[in-house]
Design a protein that fits this description.
Structural class: alpha/beta
EC number: 2.3.1.-
Number of strands: 11
GO molecular function, one term: histone deacetylase activity, NAD-dependent
Distance between the termini: 29 Å
Radius of gyration: 20 Å
Subcellular location: Mitochondrion
Cofactor: Zn(2+)
Family: Belongs to the sirtuin family. Class I subfamily.
Length: about 290
Amino acid sequence: MPPSNNVDEFRNVLKTSKHIIAVAGAGLSAASGIPTFRGAGGLWRRYDAMSLATPRAFNSRPSLVWQFYHYRRESANKAHLNQAHHSLASFSLPSIRHQIAPDSTFTLITQNVDGLSALALEKALESASDADTNVDQPKILEMHGRIFDVKCTECDHVEFTRASPICPALEGTENLIENNTMDPEIALDELPCCSKCGALARPGVVWFEEMPKYLDVINQIVDRADLCLVVGTSSTVYPAAGYAEEVAEHGGKVAVFNLDRSSGDDEADFLFLGPCEETIATALSV
């Protein structure tokens, strides 16, 4: 049987669900102006952007990798929250969620590093009640880290900073055009450094070949989830790509919210195609 696109049927399932998770990917922030760098057109300047997100790339060309992440930091600094961020943040608050799914829990597991989901939650909590703020369960888990974290390569000190630029030598490099433009080679001592020990720092994100954060906590949450919302992700990067399947295997329901068809859609119980900022807002409206 093909997945349903009936919102009323989905909301009936939502109403009886007790442990709800959302697994979010780059599509969640697409309407905010954050480039995805995945699939066709996944180039930054003339480089395969995905190949720059590795420890190996940083070890061999730290100047180039920092220019790439400086570009991404600047993009995230300029980005605006979209309705999908707001809808998921509001659903995180018990006072709102319990009107739709009584006595339920909810955790957003995001692969995004742009910090927009956390910012949306921060804004939602500004006007929240005590019942919304006095909750022990994590509301959001940024499993691939944060673009605004800077991590020391020597002492592992991590510092959050939205400084723009992150260091003087990177200023303006986000505007370089790839057509016959040589990439500037920035000296190591001019790249971001650790504020604690002075050693070379790196972007505080989880790269390919590195272990995602919070895996033990996430596994516990996925094990008991009875509804998984897949939001704006092609479900190709593991372990996040397997979470919906795990929920389905132990009897839970899966609802996919994506702009286009992706891997595993036929196994979902619900499939809502279209911009996430529209489909999620409708599905989770009070």
